[in-house]
Amino acid sequence: MKIQAAVATAPKTPFEFREVDLDDLAPDEVRVRLVATGVCHTDAIVRDQVYPTPLPAVLGHEGAGVIEAVGALVTSVEVGDSVVLSANSCGECEQCFTGRPAYCSNFFGRNFAGTRPDGSTSLASDGTNVSSHFFGQSSFATYANVAARSVVKVDKELSLELLGPLGCGLQTGAGAVINSLDVRAGASIAVFGTGAVGCAALMAAAAVGATTIVAIDLVDSRLATATELGATHVINSRTADVAEEIERITGGRGLDYTLDTTGVPSVLRTAADVLGTGGTVALIGAPAPGTEVSFEVGGSLLKGWRFRTIIEGDSVPQVFIPQLIELWKQGKFPIEKLTKSFAFSEINEAFDASSSGEVIKPILVF
Ligand code: ZN
Q: Within its chain, how far is the Cα of 10 from the centroid?
């Protein structure tokens, strides 16, 4: 069938609207009519070829929509179901079998290769293949043939416009706090960087009852949003010394948890330095392959601190996304404070608003 798609054609180049051909469903796929999709930094860095998904490609990986058809092998959803789309995984490796699909041994192939596992793409333009199945979905399009493991069924009564970003950015930040770090009531945590992922982490920290929640960013307007989301303290790292401020805030004890969403080595180093005894620093940003960070391990030896990396908030999407929707319904995960809607035709404006920092989480509405 003919669909409308925003095609990434070259690095640092605006998306191009094209009519493209969508092929027949594979037996383990569903056809989704997209209602809305989030714009994520990962789409920009793949368009810019930091990760090697072949171009031309249809990107987009925070889709939400309605099932229009189901493949012969799919039993988890039916036509008419509302779904949020998330990362794909193979379901057959050791990590998938032990409930860790974010660490799937085939994660790159299932999410970034631009093809199905058999090497085919579902999209073509003027007889030329276009990469598809980005995060199992390629949701910058009016319709998509989506891997069944990317699909999370949600209540049909819900408006889908706000929910797409749960599939990637928001589950990443919230999952790091709730699933990975298991932050408890009364704990202290700092979040470095208050983009969509950092804001989700702040909301989750407030929801679980952390009582010292520090937000660090370079932009005052973002720190104001962070306060609305539950940050108890904010630090502008352009004008204040982060380590000194945290020492003051914690009365010299240091923090239980620090979360770096920036992937900038100097920021990660600071996030480690401000930990208290037994603390954990976690990286959920995405530095370029080859990036190195140095940590102080002599004076800090006695702290027994830990460093870990986290993918997709250690989320099992079909379990965690419905939990976040319940928190949202109770007002404890106010997604709408982060989002601004754009028409699908305004995709390039939405990317500009994201990269300038003007909008934390743009959502394209079909
Ligand atoms: Zn797997």
A: 23
Ligand 1 ion: nearby residues, β-carbon < 5 Å = 89-90, 93, 96, 104
Distance in Å, CA 93 to ligand 1 centroid: 4
pLDDT at 346: 97
Q: Measured between alpha carbons, how far apart are the two ends of the chain, in Å?
A: 18
Cα 91 to middle of ligand 1, angstroms = 5
Distance 270 CA to ligand 1 centre (A): 34
Domains of the chain, start order: 2-167+334-365 (3.90.180.10), 173-311 (3.40.50.720)
pLDDT of residue 358: 87
Kindly state the average pLDDT of the residues 103-127.
96
Q: What's the rounded Cα separation, in Å, for the pair 83 and 298?
A: 50
With residue 214 as reference, give the H or E element that holds it.
strand 212-217
Beta strands in 23-140 (DSSP E): 29-38, 63-70, 82-85, 123-125, 128-130
E strands present in 118-170: 123-125, 128-130, 143-147, 151-154
Calculate the average pLDDT of the chain: 96
Reduced to 3 states (helix: H, G, I; strand: E, B; else coil), residue 122 is coil
Weakest mean pLDDT among 17-26, 98-107, 137-146, 354-363? 354-363
- Residue-wise pLDDT for 311-345, tens only, equals 999 999 999 999 999 999 999 999 999 999 999 99
Residue 275 bridge partners (DSSP)? 255
Q: What pLDDT, on a 0 to 100 scale, did the predictor assign at position 22? A: 98
245 has a pLDDT exceeding 90: yes
pTM for this predicted structure:
0.94
Q: Compute, in degrees rounded to 10, the torsion defined by CA atoms 272, 303, 258, 112.
A: 70
Q: How many CA atoms lie within 13 A of 129 on its CB side?
A: 12
Give the residue among 172, 202, 132 at the shortest CA–CA distance from 286: 172
Cβ contact 322:191 at 8 Å: no
Helix residue spans in 155-311 (DSSP H): 169-175, 196-208, 220-229, 242-249, 265-273
Question: How many Å apart are CA 82 and CA 95, to the nearest integer?
Answer: 28
